[in-house]
Automatic annotation (TrEMBL):
<keyword id="KW-0067">ATP-binding</keyword>
<dbReference type="GO" id="GO:0005737">
    <property type="term" value="C:cytoplasm"/>
</dbReference>
<dbReference type="InterPro" id="IPR020618">
    <property type="entry name" value="Adenyl_kinase_AK6"/>
</dbReference>
<dbReference type="GO" id="GO:0004017">
    <property type="term" value="F:AMP kinase activity"/>
</dbReference>
<dbReference type="GO" id="GO:0006364">
    <property type="term" value="P:rRNA processing"/>
</dbReference>
<keyword id="KW-0690">Ribosome biogenesis</keyword>
<keyword id="KW-0547">Nucleotide-binding</keyword>
<dbReference type="Pfam" id="PF13238">
    <property type="entry name" value="AAA_18"/>
</dbReference>
<keyword id="KW-0808">Transferase</keyword>
<dbReference type="GO" id="GO:0005524">
    <property type="term" value="F:ATP binding"/>
</dbReference>
<keyword id="KW-0418">Kinase</keyword>
<dbReference type="GO" id="GO:0016887">
    <property type="term" value="F:ATP hydrolysis activity"/>
</dbReference>
<protein>
    <recommendedName>
        <fullName>Adenylate kinase 6</fullName>
    </recommendedName>
</protein>
<dbReference type="GO" id="GO:0005634">
    <property type="term" value="C:nucleus"/>
</dbReference>
<keyword id="KW-0698">rRNA processing</keyword>
<dbReference type="InterPro" id="IPR027417">
    <property type="entry name" value="P-loop_NTPase"/>
</dbReference>
Length: 137
């Protein structure tokens, strides 16, 4: 269960996209103390409302559009939601948002097309974490 679901950090429901509307201010307030402690991984489909001070690294998962389309279609996404997600990927909106929100040197793109890439991504992230621990202890 996500933090947003657990704490009901929503501000209504978007009928067009058939999903709750996240209350970004409440999410930041809820996470502030935990983020000060460090060692937290945040998984979200955007980043522009998270404070820059929270992160040492940002990973943006990217998927080929034909794979993304099929993946989202299987999840039962509405046509509008599906098209908007694919268009977002085409224009690299999330990557550009991350580059604009954080120091470019901490933003990394990772391919997310096939299961083997998932394992490679996990390996890369674990190596980054291990190096960060060495550098900060």
């Amino acid at each position: 269960m996500t933090l947003a679901n657990l704490r009901q950090l929503y501000d209504g429901f978007d009928e067009e996209y058939e999903c709750p509307i996240l209350d970004e201010d409440r999410v930041v307030d809820e996470l502030e103390n935990k983020m000060k402690e460090g060692g937290i991984i945040v998984d979200y489909h955007g980043c522009d409302f998270f404070p820059e001070r929270w992160f040492h690294v940002v990973f943006v998962l990217q998927t080929d559009n034909s794979i993304l389309y099929t993946r989202l279609e299987k999840r039962g996404y509405s046509v509008k939601k599906l098209q908007d997600n694919v268009q977002c990927e085409i224009f690299q909106v999330l990557y550009e948002e991350a580059m604009a929100s954080y120091d470019c040197e901490i933003v990394h793109r990772l391919p997310s097309n096939v299961p083997e890439e998932l394992e490679n991504n996990l390996d890369q992230i674990m190596k980054w974490i291990e190096q960060w621990i060495k550098d900060n202890n």
